[in-house]
Structures are given as structure tokens and as C-alpha cells.
Write a sequence for this structure.
């Protein structure tokens, strides 16, 4: 799979700050897109690629923390680096609790920001990969028939074919066939792999 | 206690009647004794007895004396003596005697009553005067108490007001500072980001001069904007065009001294003014000039807070400095200013006080300068300081 080109979004109501950050990030060869307000960012089309968001906390209209909440409500996963003029502690605690990547105070040292950006993109890459894998697994598991799902649950629970047959009131041969289908449809390489995938899915659903 | 009160009063009445009877008896005795050598002198003594009884005993005993003496005279002296009979020729004499007795007793009783009522009136008046005096005294005391309470309240109020003003000043300055911080920080953020970008573009293997130049230009713009913010703040403080009018500086000084009076007396500082009369008017913003003088006076008072061994005195002086300008000075006998701190006195945010903002003197100086004057300080350690400023006269040079 080809590595997607990452992108950095900058939202700041101050044009000069925006341009400065844009130039700074561009200078290390990253793609940048800037927005003057949170609203502009929300309506813009975002390419499906590893990304991070540099966000001014204090902005007219929708402020940084509100945008963070909106994005998390919309299930839009993107690491956020907050920048604030007044590094006030309660605000940064709130932002970090809501899953902010970083909280930097203005004026930000260029290197600090670039480091944070690089780390955010690397993290996002990993998370995206995980999310992609997970959705792949989910798609595979969703393709199972209800009967196959019952068999899957019992297999994962550690039951032998015979026990499953007793449990579901079917012949051992039928169960064997279902089981083979499950392994095939989920691309499981071994029983252990199947169990791992099922656990991962369960864990993701619990979240 | 009415019982114990009534007893002596009954006794007194009884005594009065007994006195009347005793007087008549005495008159009878004298008349009988002297009758031996004088013939019939009864008409001499009985009127005296009646008069005395009425005078000392009052109306009742008077009538008793009249009645008793009439009977006695009728029995003992009207012939035939020692009998109740009267000879017809003696009837006019006897009736005249009785009439005289009645008239004497009435006159005396009337006189006596008048005098009594006068005395009663006087006594009553005295009592009433005493009562009124007592009432007035207590009213006066209540009033004094009220005044004391009011004075205390006023003082508390004044303290609260001063405190409020201080808090308001701090809050305003605090807000101002936060707003300045944000206003200045924003362009600074741009400056830092652009400068970092510029360096980054230049650090490439083949430096990207176009990008570096653009970033450098934006750096300059950011710095310019930051300095514009400063200019704006300064002009805000200067209030660019003060509301200038013709102002009598002595009036402004007096008003300000009145404002500072409370603070001064609380700190046991005596405020004196040595104002040159007939100073020419100056052109200025009354409120701003008040602010400057008040600031200098308050500083002076604060400078003397630690002085305990001598009288604390603050002197405000005004005089014509030259043909074109008046000079106002505020002299305190405080701790003075250390020589090494003198150059920093008018720097913003420089203060030696724990609660000071360090904005008073710089703002004062900028106000005076916007009026075309000068503000400066001189000080000797432990001998107090003098702050003075000049203001140009409104009508130009005075002859």
C-alpha cells in the first residue's frame, strides 16, 4: 500500500500567524491547508490521508475547544495541536482530557511546533492503520451468516466441534462446514488469529 | 407611699387649725389680762389672731379663727359680759367688728392664695424647666452619639470607597494588561512563526529565497503591527486630545486637596497649600490635571506612612515660574527615593510598593507632556521628595 501524503490543517483567525505557520510547515515539505475559522474548516472537504490540526483556542465564532467537541461528536478522528495566547491551565487540562495531542503557548517556537506536528502525523498514521484494519475485520465478520456467527462465538469461547454441535443441536459435520466458512470469510490463518480478531472487534465495540 | 404622705399632710392641717384656735385663745388671754388696766382692748388682739391664723393657716383656719373669736367676743366682751346676750345698742358695734374680721380674713386669704398660686406656678415652672433641661440634655447626648456613629460610618465608607477605587484601578489595569498581552502576543506569534519559517527556508540544501523573503517580510509586518499596538495603547492613555479648557490651577489644586483630605487625615498627614494668588489660567483638561495632582499627593502620603518620629506634612505649592508658565509642586517629608531608583521612576510598571501598579507616574508624566508641560522629581534619601510640574499659561506670556 502506497504511503499517503500527510496534510496539516491550520486554523487561526489571524492572517499573519496563519501564513507564518503555513510557511514554516511547508518548509519541512509538508502539505498545509489554512482556514480563517472553525466553520470554514468544518465545511471544507478533507482528503482521506494522515493529518493533524493546528488550532488556535481563542477565535471568534466557534472556538478551538468547541470545534474539538464537534469533531469528536462527528467521529472525525484527527489529532489536534492547540495553540493559545494565554496558557491557562484549566483550559489546557480540558483540551488534553478531550484527547488533544499537544497544548502549546503562543508564540510557539518553530521547532516545538514541527516536532509536535511530526509526532501527531506519525500517531495518526498508526491510528488510521488500526482503524482501517478494524473496519476490514468488521466487514469480514459482518459477512458471516447468523448461524456462522453463533458458531464463531462458541469457537472463540473455546468449545470443541462436538460440544458446539450439542449446543446448537446440529451434526458435527455441519459445524465443521460452518467453521471452515468462518475461517475462510474472516481470512483467519489459525484459530489463534481468529480469536485475536474477535477480541479486537469486541474491544473496539466496547469503546 | 400615699399613706405615709397623707399622714403628715393631715397633721399639718390639724396643726393649722390648732394654731388658729391657739391664736384666738392667746388673744382672749391678753384681752382678759390687759382688760384690767385698759378697759376693753379685745378689738386690738382678735384681728391680729385672725390675720395670723389666715396668713399662716390658710382660709379654713382663718374662718375658724373668725368664728371662734366672734363667739368669744360675744360671750366675754360684748356687754353684758360673760353672757350670750347682746344689748341692742351694741349690735352695730358687734356687727362692724365681725364684718372687719371677715374682711381682714378674706383679704389675707386672697393675698395668701395669690401668693401660693404664684409660688406653685414658680415651682411648677422650675420643675418643667428642669424636665426640659433633662430632655434637652438627653436629646443632645443622643445627637452626639448619632454624630459619632455617622462619623464612624462615613470614615468606614471613605475607606471602602478608597479600597474600591484601588480595586477598580487594579482590575482595570489587570484587564488592560491582559488585553495588551493578547494584542501584542498575536503579532509576536506571527513574528516568531515567520522568522522560524524564514530560517527553515534558508537552511534548505538549496535555500528557497522566495519563500524566505516572503517570511522575512511577514516578520517585519508582524513587528510593525506589534509596535502599532503599543502606539495605540499609549495614545489611549494620552487620550490624544484632552478636553482642554481654561483652568485656574489653584482651583484644581483646592479641589484635589479636598478629595485627598480624608486619606491624609487617616494617615495623620497635614495637607497645606501655599498657592500664589492671581495666577494666570492654563489651558488643560481639569479631570486629567486633578488626576496628576491627586496621584502625586497620594504618592506623598504613602511615602510618609512609615514616618513616626516627626510631624507628617505635605505641601502643595503653586507659583508663577516664568512669564509663560506656572509651576506646581508637591513636597513630602517622607522616606525619599534612593538615588539608584530615580532614573526608573517614570518607567511603566516600575514600583517600590507591594500593591503599586507602577502606572501612576508614567501616566501623570504623559498627561503633563500632552499639556505641553514637564513633570520631574527631586529627592534626598530620608528627607522626602518633591514632585513638580510646569504648565504653559493659556494666554501666552503674561506681562
Amino acid at each position: 500500500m502506497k504511503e499517503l501524503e500527510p496534510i496539516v490543517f491550520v486554523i487561526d483567525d489571524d492572517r499573519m500567524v496563519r501564513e507564518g505557520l503555513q510557511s514554516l510547515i511547508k518548509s519541512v515539505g509538508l502539505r498545509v491547508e489554512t482556514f480563517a475559522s472553525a466553520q470554514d474548516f468544518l465545511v471544507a472537504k478533507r482528503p482521506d490521508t494522515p493529518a493533524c490540526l493546528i488550532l488556535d483556542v481563542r477565535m471568534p465564532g466557534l472556538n478551538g475547544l468547541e470545534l474539538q467537541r464537534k469533531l469528536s461528536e462527528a467521529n472525525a478522528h484527527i489529532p489536534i495541536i492547540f495553540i493559545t495566547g494565554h496558557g491557562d491551565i484549566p483550559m489546557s487540562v480540558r483540551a488534553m482530557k478531550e484527547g488533544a495531542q499537544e497544548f502549546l503557548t503562543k508564540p510557539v517556537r518553530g521547532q516545538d511546533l514541527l516536532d509536535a506536528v511530526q509526532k501527531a502525523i506519525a500517531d495518526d498514521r498508526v491510528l488510521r492503520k488500526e482503524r482501517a484494519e478494524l473496519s476490514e475485520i468488521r466487514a469480514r465478520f459482518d459477512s458471516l451468516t447468523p448461524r456462522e456467527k453463533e458458531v464463531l462465538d462458541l469457537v472463540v469461547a473455546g468449545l470443541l466441534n462436538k460440544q458446539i454441535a450439542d449446543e446448537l443441536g446440529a451434526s458435527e459435520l455441519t459445524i465443521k462446514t460452518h467453521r471452515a466458512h468462518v475461517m475462510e470469510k474472516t481470512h483467519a490463518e489459525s484459530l489463534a488469529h481468529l480469536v485475536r480478531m474477535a477480541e479486537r472487534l469486541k474491544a473496539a465495540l466496547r469503546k | 407611699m400615699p399613706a405615709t404622705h397623707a399622714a403628715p399632710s393631715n397633721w399639718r392641717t390639724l396643726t393649722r387649725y390648732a394654731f388658729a384656735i391657739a391664736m384666738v385663745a392667746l388673744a382672749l388671754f391678753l384681752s382678759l389680762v390687759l382688760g384690767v388696766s385698759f378697759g376693753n382692748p379685745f378689738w386690738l388682739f382678735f384681728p391680729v389672731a385672725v390675720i395670723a391664723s389666715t396668713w399662716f393657716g390658710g382660709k379654713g383656719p382663718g374662718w375658724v379663727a373668725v368664728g371662734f373669736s366672734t363667739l368669744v367676743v360675744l360671750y366675754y366682751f360684748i356687754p353684758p359680759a360673760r353672757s350670750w346676750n347682746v344689748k341692742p345698742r351694741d349690735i352695730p358695734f358687734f356687727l362692724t367688728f365681725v364684718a372687719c374680721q371677715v374682711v381682714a380674713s378674706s383679704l389675707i386669704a386672697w393675698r395668701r392664695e395669690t401668693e401660693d398660686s404664684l409660688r406653685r406656678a414658680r415651682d411648677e415652672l422650675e420643675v418643667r424647666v428642669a424636665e426640659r433641661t433633662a430632655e434637652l440634655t438627653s436629646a443632645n447626648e443622643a445627637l452626639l452619639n448619632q454624630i459619632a456613629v455617622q462619623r464612624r460610618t462615613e470614615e468606614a465608607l471613605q475607606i471602602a470607597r478608597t479600597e474600591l477605587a484601588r480595586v477598580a484601578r487594579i482590575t482595570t489595569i489587570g484587564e488592560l494588561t491582559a488585553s495588551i498581552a493578547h494584542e501584542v502576543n498575536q503579532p509576536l506569534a506571527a513574528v516568531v512563526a515567520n522568522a522560524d519559517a524564514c530560517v527553515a527556508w534558508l537552511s534548505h540544501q538549496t535555500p528557497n529565497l522566495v519563500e524566505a523573503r516572503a517570511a522575512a517580510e511577514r516578520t517585519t509586518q508582524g513587528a510593525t503591527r506589534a509596535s502599532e499596538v503599543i502606539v495605540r495603547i499609549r495614545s489611549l492613555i494620552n487620550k490624544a486630545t484632552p478636553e482642554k479648557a481654561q483652568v485656574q490651577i489653584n482651583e484644581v489644586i483646592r479641589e484635589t486637596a479636598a478629595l485627598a483630605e480624608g486619606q491624609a487625615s487617616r494617615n495623620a498627614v497635614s495637607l497645606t497649600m501655599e498657592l500664589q494668588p492671581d495666577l494666570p489660567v492654563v489651558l488643560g483638561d481639569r479631570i486629567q490635571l486633578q488626576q496628576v495632582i491627586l496621584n502625586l499627593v497620594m504618592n506623598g502620603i504613602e511615602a510618609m506612612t512609615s514616618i513616626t518620629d516627626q510631624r507628617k506634612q505635605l505641601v502643595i505649592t503653586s507659583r508663577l515660574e516664568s512669564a509663560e508658565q506656572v509651576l506646581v509642586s508637591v513636597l513630602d517629608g517622607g522616606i525619599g527615593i534612593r538615588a539608584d531608583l530615580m532614573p526608573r521612576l517614570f518607567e511603566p510598571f516600575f514600583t517600590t510598593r507591594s500593591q503599586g501598579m507602577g502606572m501612576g507616574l508614567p501616566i501623570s508624566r504623559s498627561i503633563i507632556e500632552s499639556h505641553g508641560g514637564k513633570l520631574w522629581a527631586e529627592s534626598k534619601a530620608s528627607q522626602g521628595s518633591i514632585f513638580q510640574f510646569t504648565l504653559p499659561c493659556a494666554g501666552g506670556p503674561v506681562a
Q: What stands out?
A: Residues 91-202 of chain B form the longest helix (112 residues). The two ends of chain B are 92 Å apart (CA to CA). Chain B has a mean pLDDT of 83. Chain B touches chain A at residues 178, 181-182, 185-201, 204, 208, 211, 214-215, 218-219, 221-222, 225 (CB under 8 Å).
